[in-house]
Amino acid sequence: MIFAGNYFRCANRESVRVVSSAGRALFACGPMAGSETHDEGSNHAEQEPLTTDCRQVTGWICWRSQNHTGAAPMRVLSQLFANNRAWAEDMTRREPDFFARLAHQQTPQYLWIGCSDSRVPANQIVGLLPGEMFVHRNVANLVVHTDLNCLAALQFAGAVLRVHHVIVCGHYGCGGVLAALRDDNLGLIDNWLRHVQDVRSKHHSRLARLPREQQRHDRLCELNVIEQVANVCQTTIVREAWKRGHDLAVHGWIYSLSNGLLQDLGMCVTSDLEMSKCYEAACIRTNDD
Ligand SMILES: [Zn+2]
């Protein structure tokens, strides 16, 4: 088979092959015979597409399927694909029907509303597998009353998946919270973080008595979680669920990047009636340390 013009110099220099769901090769990347420097096209017109191991030859190229419609060669993140294959194999070895079962249905008990921060991987830090927790993340784990994305996740989790626990989890060292605390000018995101600044303003006296910025940052991370729990409880979705007698608890937690441990902020609300009392108690508790 000859595919002149379908060869491209490979920047990654990793052996990888990408196939469609039907098993058709879309891209392949690997070493090939010839000079060390390859230009796309004619130099390789007589080479076979690299769909198999070619380690005995030198140089690296990517081969693109003639049937693929993309105009430019795909930049394959080969390490992530390799990691993915290893992970899928490991999961299958542990539990052969794992993916077949998950593909059929997900039955999570929890909705996690957390920060997008890459250091706070929701499932991992609570030891849950895919399928066991429904996750919504955004910068600074905010629940904004007009955020349809978050509200849709909340509604779907409650009404369709019938989760019984909503966990709002913040984390110490949150960059979004720090930017809000410092009034940093980061661009568009300042508008999103304005919600954290509203929390800062609301709790000005609690924050002002702390002498060090680190303390104020930690405290604002905690208060932000408490406020977001209150926001969850005040949505029409949760209020209606409680009204219908649906068992639903809303929790406020915070995660420490420095030791990997979660802490319960003592705000667990299970009904409309509990909300104010829980909120006040949790706010006062943040003064303790
Ligand atoms: Zn964060």
Protein model, in words:
38% of the residues lie in helices and 18% in strands. With 289 residues, it is α/β, with parallel strands linked by helices. It has a five-stranded mixed sheet with strand order 6-5-7-8-9. A four-stranded antiparallel sheet has the order 1-4-3-2. A hairpin with a 6-residue loop joins strand 8 and strand 9 (262-269). Helix 5 packs across helix 6 and helix 8 (213-234) runs antiparallel to helix 10. It is globular and about 55 Å long. It starts with 6 loop residues before the first strand and ends with a helix. It binds zinc ion (ZN). Residues 115, 117, 140, 171, 174-176 line the site of zinc ion.
**Largest β sheet strand count, sense and barrel closure:** 5 strands, mixed
Report strand %. 15-25%
Task: Give me the number of helical elements.
Answer: 10
| Order of secondary-structure elements | EEEEHHEHEHEHHHHHEEH
What kind of oligomer do you see? Answer: single chain
Helix share of residues? 25-40%
Mean pLDDT over all positions: 82
Uncertain spans:
1-12, 32-72
Radius of gyration: 25 Å
Roughly how many Å apart are the termini? Answer: 71 Å
Tell me which ligands are bound: zinc ion
Judged by helices, strands and strand pairing, the structural class is alpha/beta
Shape: globular
The number of E-state strands comes to: 9
**Strand arrangement, largest sheet?**
6-5-7-8-9
